[in-house]
Every structure is written in C-alpha cells, then in structure tokens.
Amino acid sequence: MPARRCEHAKYCERCCRDRNFLQVAICRVALRPADEAQKLAPIPCTSVFARQDCFGLVAEEVEKVNPNLVVHDKEGKPYSVRYDQVNAMLLNEFLEDHGRLEEQQATIADLKSTVAQQQKTFQSKLSEQEKQITDLASGLAKVSAQLESIKPDPQVVVHNP
User: Fold this and answer.
1) What are the angstrom distances between the C-alpha of 13 and each of 6, 26, 27, 41, 73?
2) How far apart are the C-alpha atoms of 57 and 14, rounded to whole Å?
3) How far, in Å, CA of 105 to CA of 143, rounded?
C-alpha cells in the first residue's frame, strides 16, 4: 500500500498506520520479537518528517496484544501506538529472555559436564569389560588345551559272539 501522511497527527511522531484510515506510521523503533511482541507485526512505512523508510505497528493489532500500548481517538477507536511504552515492554521482554538464556546456558554447561562424566565412566567400564573378556577368552583357551591333553585315546571295542 502506498504511504500517506496521517492527517490526524501532524506533529505526532507516534502516529501509527490505522486499518480504517490507511494512515502511515511515523516510527522511531525497530522491534525485536519477544513473547508478547511476537504477535506484533511491524509494517514498512515512510516517515513524514524524515522522508525515509522505517517500520511501524498497526494500532488495532497492538490493541489485541496489549490495549495499554494504544492511544484511542474521541470515538474510542485505536488511533496511535505508544512507542515509549512499547520500548519499555521490549526492554522487559529482553531482560526476561536474557535471564532465560543465562539459565539455559547454565543448564547446557551442566548437561555437558554430566555427559563428559558419563562418557568417562562408560569408557572405564568398557575397558574393564574388554579386559575381563580377554581374561575369560585366555582362560577358556587354557581349559580347552587342558581338555585336549587329558583326552583319552579312542578305544576300540571288539565284540566276540
């Protein structure tokens, strides 16, 4: 859709594209998806003041995710996005994600340590079992040799009627 200047917010830098009026957002924020913000879909727009491309949010979509992030007009319809609050929400989401990331990294480190220890234990037991198998095989060979040495000569039975 072609970008148009929002007639309702000549000086408002937080004006957002509205589905009903096909208004263009004027934005200063690049969004990073996070839990709640993942539901928000940035749209490309052109800044009225800077005459450059940027991204904005559709007020109606933002209202579905978090009504506190939207400014309403006199009729109560979504009019604009409160980008200052979006920034705070994204910062909070970032901090939560960062905390989860650190927990996951610690868990991964613990799991790697556990796997390394299990591999050492497995290798130790494997080499121990290989030694036992070798010992059993040599013992079996000795017993077989002993049986061969004490094996009686075959005897022929003659039957006279």
Assistant:
1) 10, 5, 6, 19, 16
2) 10
3) 56
Identify the three-state secondary structure at position 50. Answer: coil
Query: What is the rounded distance in angstroms from the CA atom of residue 49 to the CA atom of residue 5?
Result: 10
Res. 20: pLDDT tops 90: no
Residues 74 and 72: their CA atoms lie apart, in Å, by: 7
> DSSP string covering 144-160, please?
HHHHHHTPPPP------
Least confident of 32-41, 61-70, 131-140: 32-41
Burial of 55 (0-12, 13-18, 19+ CB in 10 A): middle
Helix-then-strand count for the chain, H and E: 2, 4
pLDDT at 18 over 60: no
Looking from the CA of 133 toward its CB, the CA atoms found within 13 Å total 6
* Stretch 65-70: mean pLDDT: 84
pLDDT in tens, 69-90: 889 889 988 888 888 887 777 7
Q: How far is CA 161 from CA 8, 56, 155, in A?
A: 132, 117, 19
